[in-house]
Amino acid sequence: MIDNNRGRIVGINGNMLTVEFDTFVTQNEVAYAIAGDKKLKCEVIRVRGNNADMQVYESTNGLKIGEAVEFTDELLSVDLAPGLLKMVFDGLQNPLDKLAEHSGFFLEKGVYLKPLDEKVKWDFTPLLKPGDKVIAGDYVGHVPEGVYTHYISFPFAALGTWEITTVAKPGKYTIIETIATAKNDKGETKEITMLQKWPVKVPITSYKEKLLPEKTLITQQRIIDSFFPVATGGTFCTPGPFGAGKTVLQHAISQHAQVDIVIIAACGERAGEVVEILREFPHLEDPKTGKTLIERSIIICNTSSMPVAAREASVYTAVTLAEYYRQMGLNTLLLADSTSRWAQAMREMSGRLEEIPGEEGFPAYLESLIASFYERAGLFKLNNGKTGSITIGGAVSPAGGNFEEPVTQATLKVVGAFLGLSRERADARRYPSIHPLDSWSHYPSIIPKKQIENAQSVLRRGNEISQMMNVVGEEGTTISDFIIYLKSEFIDSVYLQQNTFDKVDGATDEERQKYVFEKVVKILDAKFKFQKKEETRKFFAELRQLFIDWNYLKFNTEDFKALEVSIDKKIKESTNA
Ligand SMILES: Nc1ncnc2c1ncn2[C@@H]1O[C@H](COP(=O)(O)OP(=O)(O)O)[C@@H](O)[C@H]1O
Ligand SMILES: [Mg+2]
């Protein structure tokens, strides 16, 4: 028997169920499969006639043919309200700490908890009064959340214009208490709470327009800001083989990038990696506030006990949370590590659906899904004139570091900056291991274009000369080529490389990058009067060391200035200038 909102399992294939239904079922609708006393969350991924194919977000052990499925009529959604910051959720927005409290270390299946605490009271200040006309996304009021003002928006799903009928007095309210009521001219009424739900696969569109991302987002990583910049509201990817430093780089960016909110979508590559993130990330120091970074972050992570389908939910949940904070006029940064795991989940599901596979078995729509994810980034002008942004950076981990594979290729078609991490550089401990010859960016650098092009040409020629030297040896190289080679090595070791774990060198602000780069340019342009390779090598080794020491000194301190005098003197002695 099939009743109104129910269906019946007719097929089980790994994490995919085929369910027969009688009524009306929509794509992406959430349903629960009944397994004894447990209900397992699923999402409809394809509807054909009276059959729905659904992905289950849990292990399907224990499910049987003929068992019931309850449809909910709701799309996969997240809860949006004060209290999201500092939280660690899984892809379905279960709060992981509460889940662990509830079920112990081994997460029990079929347990779904409220994402946010509904008992906590928030200090609400209304911004509206009865009679005010509002549309979706208008601010109803605000509460303090951490160091930010968290604006409560009129439901993003509201259609047309509404008139406010009542507003709560300033005071403390939970996220489920009514703080306003509204009516429209069709005679409908609405009760507004601080909590609203939003379907993760649909972008929030309560804004006026999308602007072109043209301003460099300072990450304080020199190779990025100067050579391969990211823009506020832009997109970038960091593909690289296993162990090349993608995760370390993402942490450095999240710690030092000039954004308000950081959202991490962690789909671990190794089983222990997510545990590491949970152990380390919350303790990363926030240079901006002196507190910990987690105070202005949200982590979405997949526990290893969750099946691949949950990885898909994670990236959508993460970007929806970013959109929510963008609506408050904040700059958000979403880092996904790694999007390859998400693509693999798509491949697995597509295989089960027996779709015609594209390249390497990935679904033919891989590109369009990746594109529509990155398209949710942007710089947005809101209806109230404020601007908010979402910058998205995705790590990609192609097998063997081969960038020709479909996920990397699909990603680099849509992103604005490509920061390719190289095995070779990682092995040589040249961190961050972003390859200076393979990477590119469409966004503006903080350094004049001509100077960067000049530096890049030295790097390119230095690389050619180094390869040539491998064949003909140093003796077969002219002194002028040898100097170019040493100049390229110099810029690599003092500017492109940066010690992530040093308090000073780990973060170079815009002013310092500009200042130091001027000095680097001076050396690249210098005409040295060396006759012998030995003295040239010695000079560059000493200059390099002085420069690295300089990088470790706080900007514009007495020590910094003193060392600069020594550097200038050294350059002067060896040039004809
Ligand atoms: N910037 C860095 N400075 C020093 N060591 C690094 C740096 N980046 C990576 N490493 C080293 O490489 C290891 C692997 O880095 P990780 O970011 O986990 O790689 P991936 O995420 O690409 O697999 C780290 O544990 C660390 O030892
Ligand atoms: Mg990693």
Describe the structure.
- The chain is α+β, with helices and mostly antiparallel strands and 577 residues long.
- The protein contains 14 helices and 26 strands.
- Strands 8, 18, 19, 20, 21, 22, 23, 24, 25 and 26 form a ten-stranded mixed β-sheet that branches. The chain has a six-stranded antiparallel beta barrel with strand order 1-2-5-4-3-6.
- The longest helix is centred in the C-terminal third of the chain and has 24 residues, at 449-472.
- Bound molecules: adenosine-5'-diphosphate and magnesium ion.
- Residues 240, 242-248, 431-432, 500 line the site of adenosine-5'-diphosphate.
Q: Over the alpha carbons, how many angstroms does the gyration radius reach?
A: 27 Å
Q: Which stretches are low in confidence, meaning pLDDT under 50 for 5 or more residues running?
A: none
The CATH topology assignment of the largest domain is Rossmann fold
Count of discrete alpha- or pi-helical segments spanning 4 or more residues: 14
CATH superfamily annotation of the largest domain? P-loop containing nucleotide triphosphate hydrolases
Judging from the principal axes of the Cα atoms, what is the shape? globular
**Molecules bound to protein:** adenosine-5'-diphosphate, magnesium ion
Q: Please indicate the count of domains.
A: 4
What structural category do the secondary elements indicate?
alpha+beta
CATH architecture of the largest domain: 3-Layer(aba) Sandwich
Total E-strand runs = 26
Helical content (DSSP H or I, runs of 4+): 25-40%
Highest CATH level, the class of the largest domain: Alpha Beta
Distance between the termini: 93 Å
Mind describing the biggest β-sheet?
A: 10 strands, mixed
Strand content: 15-25%
Mean pLDDT: 92
